[in-house]
């Protein structure tokens, strides 16, 4: 099968951590998501402007880890065909295609990626009722994208291209080294996944779309007024043309408010960016400097759950 148009979007990201209650409070009371369900110790959070049943799931664990990265595909037949192809390619499945029991149900397969992350691909998930956000509402409308770190980034990029059909649309370089690969799926959004060149396997950041630039700035300002450290921003990346403001959740994972990401048409050409040009990082020139504090936050701590399936 051809995987080029297999993945339609990013559905949700799951985190596990010791400080569950602090995380629940952060994502609901501060970040602006809505806790919609709890089942068997897993808490599910939706974005008000998204039809996805949930965009973040949280679970208590003694170790800090990214539990799952979930992507959507169009049909159950895609899930079955993907599972068959992955097994032929020697990819380790966590479970075969089956009915899913999380909010929204659906039909999906779970597997380990090259670095040992848990990846889920699902179809036929029932949408939730959602609403159009009002002007000025400074809460996430939907999940935008996630970025992962790998100490073997080119191999990880190659794996996502071959196994899940992602395509590299842009790379960022500095002094001859490639630091980031941005990858699209069948959705026209510039990227839904990126791979960073990092010292260890970890989540780089998870990004949430705001209604617009005004709501983005209101959200960044709201969190700062509440005493949350703005790690980097507010600015606007040349790559993807999206606004950025980075914070940390209660477990130390970096999360981003964003808005305005560019959309790709049917005809596009992969590009490169040189990070020695400050406009590549921030075309507005309004952000604080990209330095050690930002890099430390984006490197995160090593994922403690590699090649270990979560209990749920």
Automatic annotation (TrEMBL):
Domain of life: Bacteria
CDD domains in alphabetical order: BphC5-RrK37_N_like
Membrane spanning stretches: none
SUPFAM superfamilies: Glyoxalase/Bleomycin resistance protein/Dihydroxybiphenyl dioxygenase
Database matches in Gene3D superfamilies: 2,3-Dihydroxybiphenyl 1,2-Dioxygenase, domain 1
InterPro entries listed in its UniProt record: Glyas_Bleomycin-R_OHBP_Dase, Glyas_Fos-R_dOase_dom, GlyoxalaseI/FosfomycinResist, VOC_core
Protein name: Oxidoreductase
Name of one Pfam family that matches: Glyoxalase
Domain VOC, first and last residues per copy: 9-124, 142-260
């Amino acid at each position: 099968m051809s995987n080029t148009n297999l993945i339609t979007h990013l559905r949700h990201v799951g985190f596990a951590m010791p400080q569950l209650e602090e995380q629940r409070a952060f994502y609901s009371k501060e970040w602006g998501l809505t806790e919609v369900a709890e089942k068997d110790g897993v808490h599910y959070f939706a974005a008000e402007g998204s039809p996805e049943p949930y965009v973040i799931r949280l679970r208590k664990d003694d170790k800090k880890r990214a539990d799952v990265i979930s992507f959507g595909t169009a049909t159950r037949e895609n899930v079955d065909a993907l599972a068959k192809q992955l097994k032929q390619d020697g990819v380790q499945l966590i479970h075969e295609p089956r009915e899913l029991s999380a909010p929204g149900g659906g039909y999906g397969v779970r597997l380990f990626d090259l670095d040992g992350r848990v990846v889920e691909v699902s179809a036929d998930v029932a949408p939730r009722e959602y609403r159009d956000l009002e002007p000025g509402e400074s809460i996430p409308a939907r999940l935008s994208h996630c970025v992962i770190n790998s100490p073997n980034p080119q191999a990880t990029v190659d794996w996502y291209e071959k196994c899940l059909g992602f395509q590299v649309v842009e790379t960022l370089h500095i002094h001859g080294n490639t630091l980031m690969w941005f990858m699209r799926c069948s959705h026209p959004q510039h990227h839904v996944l990126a791979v960073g060149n990092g010292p260890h396997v970890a989540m780089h950041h998870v990004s949430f779309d705001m209604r617009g630039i005004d709501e983005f700035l209101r959200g960044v300002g709201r969190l700062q007024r509440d005493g949350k450290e703005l790690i980097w921003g507010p600015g606007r990346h040349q790559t993807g043309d999206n606004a950025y403001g980075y914070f940390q959740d209660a477990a130390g994972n970096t999360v981003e408010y964003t808005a305005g990401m560019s959309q790709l048409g049917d005809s596009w050409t992969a590009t490169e960016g040189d990070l020695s040009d400050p406009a590549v990082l921030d075309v507005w020139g309004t952000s604080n400097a990209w330095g050690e504090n930002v890099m430390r936050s984006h490197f995160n701590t090593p994922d403690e759950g590699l090649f270990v399936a979560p209990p749920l």
